[in-house]
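Board notes (copied after class):
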Amino acid sequence: MQPHQLNPLIEPQFDAVTDFILNNLGSNVPLVEKMGHYIVESGGKRLRPLLALLSANACGYEGELHIRLAAVIEFIHTATLLHDDVVDNSELRRGNATANAKWGNAPSVLVGDFLYSRSFQIMVEIGRMEIMQVISNATTVIAEGEVLQLLNQRNPDTTEDSYMQVILGKTAMLFEAATECGAILADASAEDREALRRYGRHIGIAFQIIDDVMDYLSTADEMGKNVGDDLAEGKATLPLIRAIQCGTDEERQIIRQAIRQGGLEDLQPVLDIVQRTGAIEYAQQAAQQQVDLAIAAIAVLPDTSFKTTLVELAGLAVARKR
C-alpha cells in the first residue's frame, strides 16, 4: 500500500497534486520538459507533498490551494534530487537511471534550477507571504546542509552531532516546511502550527536515518539505488559513526580508512563490522525516538482521520525498505 492510500479522503487530493505537477512542467525548451517529466514520473512515494495535504486537512482547511502547495514541495524536492545526483555522481535513483546518467550533469543542474524557479512562481500564485518566508528559509538551509555534507565527506572524525546537523538541513527542513506550511494555509493556531512544524522535523530526521541504515542493510532492488553508495562517496553516516565508537581498534581503522578513501573495496568488511557492533540497531532506535517525538508533537491536534494518518505515516518512516 502506498502512503496516500492510508486515507481514502486524501486520495483524490493526492491525485489532483499529481495532475497539477504534470500540467505545470511545460517549457518552451523540449529537453526541460522531457527531463522534468522523467524525474517526476520515475517513482517515489511523494511523502513530502502528502504531508502538506494531511497537515492542511488536519487543521480544517477546506480550500484548494493546498494542491499547489504540495506541488511546490514536490518541485523543490525533485530539484534537490537532480542536484544531489550530480554532486554524488549517482547512476541509480528509485530503481531507474538518474537524469545525469541519461543526459549529463549540465542539463541536470539546469533543469533542477528550472524546477526551483517554477516552485517559486507557484508560491506567488498561492499569495501567502508566510509560506514564501518558510519555504525560502528552508531552501537556504537545505543548500547549507548539502554543503556541510560535502565538507564532511571522507572525514572519519565526523561526530554524531555534525551528522544530525547535516540531515536536519538536507532532509528534515523540507519535511518541516511541508507540514508547517499546511498549517499556515489553514490559518491554524500558533500551537497547532508549531506542533506540525516539529512533527515534520522529527519525521524528516527519522526518514533520513533509515535511508542511511538501508545502505548497509538492503539490496539494490529494495533501495532503488546501489548498495554501499554512501560508503563509496565517503559519507560518515550514523551506522559508521556508531561502529567507530563501538568497534575494536582494528575495526575502527578499517572503517576510518574506508571513509577516507571512498570506493567499495572495503564494503564487505565494513558491512560485517556495522552488523557486529550493533550499529544498525542503534541507528534504528535513534530513528524510532524521532518518530515517538513526532507523534507526541501532534497530540494537541483535533482527533481526525487526518491526524490518525499522520501517526500511521510516522510508523512507516521507520518500517520502510525503500
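Comment from the instructor: The chain has one domain: 8-319. DSSP finds 16 helices and two strands in the chain.
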